[in-house]
Design a protein that fits this description.
- It is a single chain.
- The chain has a single domain (3-168), classed as Flavodoxin domain (Rossmann fold), CATH 3.40.50.
- It has a five-stranded parallel sheet, with helices on both faces. It has a two-stranded antiparallel sheet with strand order 6-7.
- Helix 3 crosses helix 4 (83-95).
- It has 173 residues and is an alpha/beta fold.
- It has helices at residues 15-24, 45-51, 55-65, 83-95, 118-127, 144-147, 156-168; strands at residues 3-7, 30-33, 69-73, 104-110, 134-141, 148-149, 152-153.
- It starts with a strand and ends in a 5-residue tail after the last helix.
- It has seven helices and seven strands; from the N terminus they run E-H-E-H-H-E-H-E-H-E-H-E-E-H.
- Pfam families: FMN_red (PF03358).
- It comes from Aquimarina mytili.
- One of its GO terms (cellular component) is cytosol.
- This is NAD(P)H-dependent oxidoreductase.
Length: 173
Amino acid sequence: MKTILLAGSNRSKSINQQLIEYMAQSIDDAEVLNMHNYDAPMYSIDLEYTQGIPKTIKKLNEKLSDADTVVMALPEHNGNFTAFFKNIIDWLSRENRGFLANKNVLLVSATPGPNGGMSVLNIAEQMLPFFGGRTIGKLRVNNFYQVFLNGKVIDKELENELNAALNNGSILI
């Protein structure tokens, strides 16, 4: 069973990217995508008609089509997706409206503070069915810098929650 992990961020030191890289270590047949490699110009129907779908989006769609499960780590900006990730979704939906068809999707959000992430997770959960995806779980990782150090989770409770989320979706080794 193939699992794709991606962070909805283009930040070079994204805590959500760090989180999925850690999570991937517990998953057999996992591939971590760095979304920097799938950048695209701001979506516009005029741009789509004149230049077509960007090659990076076509490649991302191919990667996603090979997956059974997708883990999305979503930073929250102003209670929503990052502009970067929303743009990727807009392009993907133009390439393939069902880019998450029959995919199980685990939603996670790492935040530096104590209360972030829930808005974006709820928005993502509501959005997934439009593209054929099924939410199999949601998990917030708050106070990231207090529970994660040198590429590892240092909080036993969080470790248990991550394992439970991965196990619930049957994507652990």
